[in-house]
Amino acid sequence: MSLLLAPWTRLSLLVVLLVAAGACVLVYEPQRLLSRGWPPGLPVGAGVLVFAGAYGLCAAAFVPRPLLNLAAGAVFGTWFGLVAAVGGTVLGAGISFGLGRVMGQEALRPFLRGRWLKAADAQLSRHGFRSMLAVRIFPGVPFAAANYLAAVSRCGWPPFLLATALGTVPNTAAYVVAGASASSPGSPAFLVSFGFIAVSGAVAAAVAWRGRHRLAAPAVREPASVHPPVVGAAPHGP
């Protein structure tokens, strides 16, 4: 096998690429560039497509999605901002999933030995759409972590992308509405969106806490049934 095609070589290249992407995010802060708007002559449809592409690259480079969603609402308003944010989310998830699948899956699958990792791998491999939909609806699992964990599992492309597109709509819409109405923080739209964000975060924290304790609880084993010894009594003569 060629050295460049070895699993650990590809995994090392993936780590270097992700570290470089994270460093670029810290230095250049691309989320600020997205919030500055677009040239006046650029059509809205073209602006949405360009924004979605930039959003996808930023999301794959670990830019926090809430900042990108707020920027989408601030630039395009509620409806066009939601289209741009959801499209960028699916694109960013696809980029991360593809990188993890091609460059990391073969090297990391032998290490799926812990109870949590085995359980997550089994769910994503057998029930990809249902599992990813639950992960996307509840914002307790980091976006990038869910992408790469799904990539290491045997989850297929169609269920991963479809669950991402559907499951991220509620939380993404709340941030987009908040960004679109940020200029009037006392408006009902801003208050409702902010309330939804707070409630969903609290629910996600409660679900994660409950799941953590459930996994941490030791398995209760039933004691083995103990049968009393059978004593054969010899017949006594007269």
TrEMBL record:
InterPro entries: TMEM64, VTT_dom. The chain crosses the membrane at residues 6-28, 40-63, 75-99, 157-177, 189-209. Coiled coil: none annotated. It is found in: Cell membrane. Residues 63-180 form the VTT domain. It holds the Pfam family VTT_dom. Keywords: Cell membrane, Membrane, Transmembrane, Transmembrane helix. It is a multi-pass membrane protein. Belongs to the TVP38/TMEM64 family. PANTHER family: GOLGI APPARATUS MEMBRANE PROTEIN TVP38-RELATED. This is TVP38/TMEM64 family membrane protein. It comes from Streptomyces polychromogenes.
